[in-house]
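Incident log, entry 3
Record: Haem-binding uptake Tiki superfamily ChaN domain-containing protein (324 residues)
Problem: checksum mismatch between cached and fresh output.
Input:
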Amino acid sequence: MAFRFFILIISLTLSACSAVPSPANIPKKTTLNTYYDFQLYDPSNQQEIDNIKQLAQQLADSQVVLFGEFHTHPAIHLAQLRLFAALYQQNHQLSLSMEQFDRSQQAVLNQYLDEQIGEEWLVKQTKAWDNYRSDYRPLVEFAKQQQLEIIAANAPRKHVRCLGRQGLDYLQQLPSNQRQQLAETFTIEDPAYRQRLFGNAHHGDEQQTQNHFIAMLAWDDTMAESIAKHALNSGQQIMHTVGNFHIEQRQGTYSRVKQRLHGQKVSSVVALSEREFTSLSAAEKQQKGDYLIIVRALPLRYKNEQHRRAEFAQINQQAQISCQ
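Fresh output:
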């Protein structure tokens, strides 16, 4: 589902997932022999972090922890669960925020947390990601067991797609209850983030490219607003699970949360493959994020360009919806 979810935005020529380079051997205390192994790294002092408990201690004073992921990577999802549990051991005033649910699904998610509905109903009603049961169920169940709140932080997919087609004008036609499912304000001027998203390429004319950028911002600003509102209202620490692209280089969701939290500390845990890690200088590693999680690269999705194009075409066709 993670792949399909992001390819739905490729119907707007966007992708919120970072490509994962191939693995390479690097000297470290942790050996990445399997897809459940990971290494934690502090780029500020260029030292490996021994374990999740140590990372949790270093994050104790962060109001918000943004945990980036390569969707479907077993080691990253395992680390997310372990970090969330370790943060809870330190501070029971904790909430989980998730890109994987959107604001329109908050009521259904709350019903599940309150034991009013079962998991199958939750999955069907929210059209949960295909990898929900394998990758996100453990986090949700831990939060449920400890009676912690979960924030359905994202923007609804339909609105994201329609913003990609029509730009901000689309917001004017939404009734108030649907308008509230998106961030109140969007930070449009962000040339560095736009450059990282598109490079020097253009997707159609300039207005189409700008609309596609606004669609990406619908994710970032809506997630950031959801997180910040909960943090300011509850005073709780929040851990947010999110695609890596949204927080790399402290851009996207990261920068939008910082804008809204008025100086409270925000920290990121950014995912890297072994090869990418070894290719970066110390300064580049610091630029990537506040903390790094290094994992084995996932297998290539496609080796044949025709196969990739066929899959994209099928998903694009499925994504055709009315924006009226």
